[in-house]
Amino acid sequence: MEFFFNTNIQFYILAYLVGGIPFGLLLAKYYGHVNVTEVGSGSIGATNVLRALKTQNPKLAKQVAIATLVLDVFKGIIILALAKFIAGVSPETLWTIAILSVIGHCYSPYLKFEGGKGVATGMGVMFFMLPVETLIALVVWFLFAKTIKISSLSSLSGLLALVIASFIIHPNIPQISTHAPIIIITFIIFYKHIPNIIRIFKGEETRVV
Predict the structure, then answer these.
(1) Angle, vertex CA 80, rays to CA 78 and CA 83, nearest 5
(2) Contact 111, 62 (CB under 8 A)
(3) For the segment 32-87, what is each residue's pLDDT rounded down to a tens digit?
(4) For residue 170, which of 182, 186, 187, 184 has the smallest C-alpha distance?
(5) What angle do CA 160, 150, 156 make, to 5 degrees?
């Protein structure tokens, strides 16, 4: 039982459980009476929430999608903030918390280990850990979103920009001297986007209008 009284372990479990909260599913069901796991891509993220609710109420769809995005971003940040500023855990522990938050979102314990694509939660934890690189990623995402208007391609392009920027700005990530956590989070998000990537190459990926 001493295992569960370890501060790091407690934060790891908390990061996974909080990261797994399917805000998109809960909000879409409550406000739009729609199960997003049965619509479109089946993802619980903001893009699929927008897609699921748009036909019945475009204004509501945007509001719920924005709320989903904000909550998905902050569910990773809040645990990192508690761990850093209250518990004072090590940088290695913070990066592990970041990874587990993304895993929780992508493989939620509340959805039989299904979930979202990890973009919003990933960007949230990256912003906390690497704010400059994440701002660069957001600029790239915005440019792609405005011009190409393919959500998945915009998100993945932003993520790639973040990875590249991290190697340029921080050849050695402060205090841990490795890019491994960033690569792991990137791999998880790209893996969850495999169906989208296939559709992109086939020219079948849906545009966000």
Answers:
(1) 110
(2) no
(3) 999 999 887 788 999 899 988 988 888 999 999 999 999 999 999 999 999 999 99
(4) 182
(5) 15
